[in-house]
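Re: that chain you flagged

S.,

Sorry for the slow reply, it's been a week of failed gels. I finally had a moment to sit down with the sequence you sent. For the record, here it is as I used it:
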Amino acid sequence: MKVKSILVSQPKPETEKSPYFDLAEKYKLKIDFRPFIHVEGIGAQEFRANTRATFHGHTAVILTSRNAVDHFFRLAEEMRFNVPDSMKYFCISEATAYYLQKYVVYRKRKIFHGKQTFGDLMEIVKKHSKEKFLLPCSDLIKEEIPKQLDDAKINYTQAVCYRTVCSDLSDLKDIKYDMLVFFSPSGIASLYKNFPDFAQDSTRIAAFGPTTQAAAKEHKLDINVSAPTPSAPSMTMAIEEYIKQVNKK
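Prediction finished late last night. Pasting the structure tokens below so you have them in one place:
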């Protein structure tokens, strides 16, 4: 069966230059975007009650996303913690580093960033191993992050500042798509929380990354599109490979 409609379980791209839009135009596809999960901040009272972490006494912050940036500064304000000007910021990417301008005077702070992966950032963190790091994160932090910090014997405190929760998708109940695209186990969990009786039938499933693919298999979903692969490092490239095969007839 040809693929004519795709639902991507992420927010709609902010730029018109997204490869999803190129894909839609090239193959005459209907591509919709809908976050299956969203982030909710943890309040100061809950933070104090449920964690031993404190913002005090740290000399550096590791920021792995814009969410981490937002919720670190939000909680700091709620707890009346004055972030010192001497605080060093270690960001997973240049984009995340520039996002700090929302909260600090960028040129007056010591800000470091990796290329895109946490492994890249770790190479910089290791060079500043004498710092005491704070790691603001979600309740669903990727296992590789604390593992890499532990393996490198970095002095850090993990602070859960926000949680990932399932979005309400009830309005999609009677809407069918030829393909659903997932990027995290949480997205798969949200699908079944909203639709416990979901049956795959002819719906194609695209899954990015080994943990997402494992979650899909746990629910006995057939994965039609996997990424990344050597020939398709991005999800859009993997989808295009599949489209070329099934839509050519």
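What I noticed first: The chain has a mean pLDDT of 93.

Talk soon,
D.
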